[in-house]
Amino acid sequence: MIPPRVHLPSACAFAAAIVTAGAAACGGSVEAEEMRRRSMKGETKGETIVLKSTLPQEWALPDPQRVGEISLEEALQRRRSVRAFANTPLTEAEIGQLLWAAQGVTDEAGHRTAPSAGALYPLELYVGTPDGFFHYDPARHGLTLHKPGDPRPAMQAAGLYQEALGDAPAIFAIAAVQERTEVKYGARAPRYVHMEAGHAGQNILLEAVALGLAAVPMGAFDDARLSEALALPEDQRPLYLIPVGRAATEPPP
Ligand SMILES: Cc1cc2nc3c(=O)[nH]c(=O)nc-3n(C[C@H](O)[C@H](O)[C@H](O)COP(=O)(O)O)c2cc1C
Predict the structure, then answer these.
(1) Which segments of the chain have a pLDDT < 50?
(2) Which of 140, 189, 221, 229 could anchor a disulfide with 182, C-beta 3.0 to 4.6 Å?
(3) pLDDT value of residue 23
(4) CB crowding 40-73: b at 16 or more within 10 Å, else e
(5) What is the pLDDT of residues 144-161, one digit of tens each?
(6) Which residues pair with residue 173 across a beta bridge?
(7) Which residue among 76, 81, 155 has the greatest number of ligand 1 atoms within 8 angstroms of its CB, and so is best to mutate?
(8) What are the structural domain ranges in the chain?
(9) How far is CA 109 from CA 139, 177, 200, 211, in A?
(10) What pLDDT does residue 249 have?
(11) From the CA of 239, how far away is ligand 1's center (Å)?
């Protein structure tokens, strides 16, 4: 059964990065084990421990659906930018499906749903939800916690306070490592990377329609502010934000 709200990992994994010693038992690492031992002996009373690196932070998403309810033509016909969302979260299955649509692996050679110049795959995909900011790993169709805490207010601030960024239960972010493409294509790399972000973005938009969801692609944001807020690695540049949710009003039939 699809959970009623986004069912990203257990409460332990999503506890804020800073927790009290008693919660250390959530972690499975050596450090967490040591903390649990000290906690049981009463050595950690009141101590605040940073657990960011000790919590389990990776997990697999549900298998994506390969058959949908509506045709590609119908999705193309219905797609419209929607900027007002109902206050209902996306499910884990919906989030996984949208990520797969953008960059999912579709054969044993590692090719993906979106084409890539030279199959060099410069794009990195993230999603921000109330539970945290997550990085998508196409190879294992899984997520990794990239930054704890709800990133959406910071994304909205970096996105010129556009309302859709404040309303959406999930904001997808497409970033790129241009150097991966430069290795082969030199000065044409920026052009190729931007084209690829467009491919992946459109896939998210069409998948959203196919799932009965609504979305809007956004290019208006402050790059530096967004990169800092999301703790993006130095070599990654944000290219696209795509808030996704359930339309506040029903889409036309
Ligand atoms: C590259 C790009 C950047 C965009 N940036 C924004 C944006 O920052 N904010 C926004 O509300 N819409 C943005 N849009 C959506 C356009 O406003 C929208 O596509 C256009 O009005 C046409 O409407 P439609 O998408 O419903 O066909 C962007 C679209 C593209 C392709």
Answers:
(1) 1-56
(2) 189
(3) 34
(4) eeeebeeeebebeebbebebebbebeeeeeeeee
(5) 999 999 999 999 999 999
(6) 126, 241
(7) 81
(8) 18-51, 59-245
(9) 10, 21, 19, 28
(10) 75
(11) 13
Structure tokens given for 4: 């009623």
| CA proximity to 88, closest of 206, 241, 214 | 214
Give CA–CA dist 182/192, Å, rounded. 9
Write the single-letter amino acid at 160: L
Q: What fold, for 59-245? A: NADH Oxidase (3.40.109)
Q: Which long-range contacts (C-beta less than 8 Å, at least 24 apart) are formed by 104-110?
A: 104/64, 104/138, 104/141, 105/138, 105/139, 105/141, 110/139
Q: Whose CA is nearest to atom 3 of ligand 1?
A: 219
DSSP per-residue codes, 99-117? HHHHH-B-STT--BSS--G
User: Tens digits of per-residue pLDDT, 5-17?
Assistant: 344 443 333 333 2
Q: Is the CB of 194 under 6 A from ligand 1?
A: no
**CA dihedral of residues 162, 163, 164, 168 (deg, nearest 10):** 120
Q: Which helix H or strand E contains 18, and what residues bound it?
A: strand 18-20
Which amino acid, one-letter code, is at 17? A
Integer angstrom CA distances of residue 78 from 129, 203, 213, 217: 25, 14, 11, 15
92 C-alpha to center of ligand 1: Å? Answer: 26
Q: Are strands 123-129 and 170-176 parallel, antiparallel or unpaired?
A: antiparallel
Amino acid found at 251: P
